[in-house]
Amino acid sequence: MNVSHMRGGFIALVVSASLFVAGCGADEGPKASQKPAGATQSSQQPTPTLAEQSTEAPTEDPVEPLVIVKGRKGVEVVIESAERDAGGFLTIKGRLSNPSGESVVLPGEMRGNETEVVKHGLSLGGATLVDSAGKKRYYVLRDTDGRPLTTTGLDSLGPGKSTAVFLQFPAPPASTTEVSFQLPTFEPATLKLS
């Protein structure tokens, strides 16, 4: 056997072993201080479905809800804040929760029936605010692609689970101090605005 032939085989064996050893360490992933360039937290970990999310105790002090809106199968929307901003928007934040002891599939009607909103999946896009005094109805805002400016990707909630939600509307005039919050399949509720 030729020496140069043996040397080439030995080099191939060393390279193969090096690649194998390097591949074995790949399961560890980057350390907290060594994130790959351009990586975001959402690309590193899969997003759990609503059914998998837990109702961990909030790290902040509990917020007194402005209103609790009841829906089918015991599902609730707990509205914690409704804030106007200088840009002319009203942002509502709260939690969608399932206090029952069974998993609940969320109703598709919550997203409304507008074609642009429906094609972006299950959301709270069907919500409206009704200003009875001003005789106006406000719809959830949409971006330029027709996506509703609200929580999306809603599918189901496990027993005792909840998830944070938000909705953004055009802000009613400052003189409007209360509106009716309406979400398909949920009872309407009066929402006081500051």
TrEMBL record:
Biased amino acid composition, Polar residues: 39-57
Annotated segments matching region Disordered: 27-65
Full protein name: Secreted protein
Organism of provenance: Streptomyces filamentosus (Streptomyces roseosporus)
